[in-house]
Amino acid sequence: MPDDTLTTAATLERPDDFYAALLAAHDGLSDAQSQALNARLVLLLANAVGHHATLLRLLHDARRSL
Description:
Elements: H1 15-26, H2 31-49, H3 52-64
């Protein structure tokens, strides 16, 4: 996904189902395991996106939203 076509509009298919699955993936994990799961998920998603400039923009946008 090239940087100039980055969308922040909601496009997630079945967002409620994904959120439920995300929460379920954390069930029974310690805080450290939960943080490790989140880190691994971020790396897998970054690999799926693949485009360096897009990833940097997403990092910037996520940080700015805090």
